[in-house]
Amino acid sequence: MPIYEFECGRCGERFEELVPAGTASQACPACGVAGAERRLAGFRTTRQPTAAQKRRMEDRRGVDRGGARERFQRTLDRSRERRPRS
Fold first, then answer.
1. CA 61 to CA 18: how far, in whole Å?
2. Pick from 43, 44, 32: which is nearest to 5 by CA?
3. For the whole model, what pTM was predicted?
4. How does strand 36-39 pair with strand 3-7?
5. Which one, 36, 59, 62, 74, has least CB within 10 Å?
6. What was the pLDDT predicted at 11?
7. Which among 12, 14, 37 is positioned nearest to 24, based on CA atoms?
8. What are the pLDDT digits (tens) for 47-65?
9. Mean pLDDT over each residue of the chain, to the nearest integer
10. Can you tell me the distance from the alpha carbon of 60 to that of 56, in angstroms, rounded to the nearest whole number?
11. DSSP SS3 for 16
């Protein structure tokens, strides 16, 4: 049984219900009126690249995967060298 999204025409409540396939209307849980109509549920897609896509982009740009960690360590070492000892 699929989960469908419904919207009540009377109170405007939007809700999801697990109902048999093809169900066109359902009773509203907020106001109790029958006849809430099924709506198309929106969904999101992510624009984040997958791990494999990230590796391919890094390879194309010539970026070393461990480079960020090494740069951070070098910066940390330099800041410790500059700091006056008490």
1. 47
2. 43
3. 0.47
4. antiparallel
5. 62
6. 92
7. 37
8. 888 888 888 888 887 766 6
9. 83
10. 6
11. strand
